[in-house]
Amino acid sequence: MSGYEHKHAIIGAGFCGLGVARAFKRSGIPFDVFEADDDVGGNWYHGVYETVHIISSRRTTESPDFPMPADYPDFPSAAQMLDYLRAYAEHFGLREHIAFRTRVTRVAPRGDGRWEVTLSGPSGGETRIYGGVVVCNGHHWDPRMPDLPGTFSGQLIHAKHYRSPEELAGKRVLVLGGGNSACDIAVEASRFGASSHISLRRGYWFLPKMMLGVPTIELLKPWMPPWFQRRFVKSLVRLSVGRYERYGLPHPDHEPFERHPTLNSELLYHLRHGRITPLPDIRRVEGDTVEFADGARERFDLIVAATGYRVSFPFLADGVIAWKDGLPQLIDGIVPPSHKNLYVFGLGQPRYGAGPLITAGADLLCTMVATQQQLKHPLGALLARMHRRPPRTLLQDPFQVLRAVRISKRLLPRLPRLEPILMRDA
């Protein structure tokens, strides 16, 4: 025994990793946390621009067991979010479990339910054997860059690498995409740049961050079915914003919440003031000139690609997880069907409000760990026999997730008794 077989290794000390560590500590599950950075916070520590604020509200983002300070605004800043996560780690005594400046470079199954975890950093390439692994490496770190049709002679960066408005000063800026980061950067370019343009391949639902005097997402209630939420939001948008076509924007090509919503109150304001110019998709690029699908041609110094991220687990050994259409094939988005004691936590992207989902999901994860210890087969294999499937999208309705968590917590303790029946022909 190396001393680690009774423990779980948690990869990452961001919002999700800290939530799992807090739940494990409360449940008495031994664990170590590995964090490549020198502090907690994940994306809020190293991966966001200086002026960013959350798009969900304080109430829907804070953890139920650790509320944010009462003097925080409705939409806390990046600095406030980082302070909150640091306070969370201190309050629950998590720092003593975290190895900072330690990167996990490889995770491989041993065939007996245990896992080889190879580390770099202060541990100097050490390999340890852990009883289980929880992957909490986050979403927003592996940028997806666009394949521009041509060669751009100016500067091309991903939104991941944008840090402050000073980078936009005096530049002709083109932002690609219609998500939250794209809108924020386009607005900042309208203030600091020589010009600001935004290129959209399709129509989006742009929702004001506030409606009827409260954060928009707080108007959605658990009793509202999805169809009602969509009609409700469409009605509010029509009353408060009107038709997107009046802003020079294409009509959305999907229903509200079928894709991740964009909550931004400033983009439409600056469009109507002529400070931001909307444009369609790019046709081709030549030097500093970009031609668009409608034939318009503009010259730019800087293109910021707010084109999203890939889901990546580069440390996992080949074949541990199957992939389809860019999504890992994990039962319920958490466990593979062919391996024991491996969990991916925080893969889903809620429309808003991470804290309550992390807290409830981490509690469920503790139940999954306890259940797996009583099973001969991988937990994912049993769940697959019960027709539980990998999600077809990462976008999640928070209310549906919380309902699913409650159902799963009742189901999991029954699996040891059902295993002989479910796996009879395995």
Give the topology, please.
Layout: E1 8-11, H1 15-27, E2 31-34, H2 43-46, H3 58-61, H4 78-91, E3 98-99, E4 103-109, E5 115-120, E6 127-130, E7 132-135, E8 150-152, E9 155-158, E10 172-176, H5 180-192, E11 195-199, E12 206-207, E13 210-211, E14 214-215, H6 226-240, E15 262-263, H7 267-272, E16 277-279, E17 282-287, E18 289-292, E19 297-299, E20 302-305, E21 323-324, E22 327-328, E23 342-344, E24 349-350, H8 354-372, H9 379-385, E25 395-396, H10 398-411, H11 415-422
Parallel strand pairs: 1-2, 1-7, 2-3, 7-23, 8-17, 9-20, 10-11, 10-20, 11-16, 12-15, 24-25
Antiparallel strand pairs: 4-5, 5-6, 13-14, 17-18, 18-19, 21-22
Please give a structural write-up.
It is built from eleven helices and 25 strands. The protein is of the alpha/beta class and 426 residues long. It folds into two domains: 8-141 and 310-422, 3-Layer(bba) Sandwich (FAD/NAD(P)-binding domain), CATH 3.50.50.60; 150-305, FAD/NAD(P)-binding domain (3-Layer(bba) Sandwich). The strands form eight sheets. A five-stranded parallel beta sheet has the order 3-2-1-7-23, covered by helices on one side. The protein has a five-stranded parallel beta sheet with strand order 9-20-10-11-16, covered by helices on one side. The protein has helices at residues 15-27, 43-46, 58-61, 78-91, 180-192, 226-240, 267-272, 354-372, 379-385, 398-411, 415-422, and strands spanning 8-11, 31-34, 98-99, 103-109, 115-120, 127-130, 132-135, 150-152, 155-158, 172-176, 195-199, 206-207, 210-211, 214-215, 262-263, 277-279, 282-287, 289-292, 297-299, 302-305, 323-324, 327-328, 342-344, 349-350, 395-396.
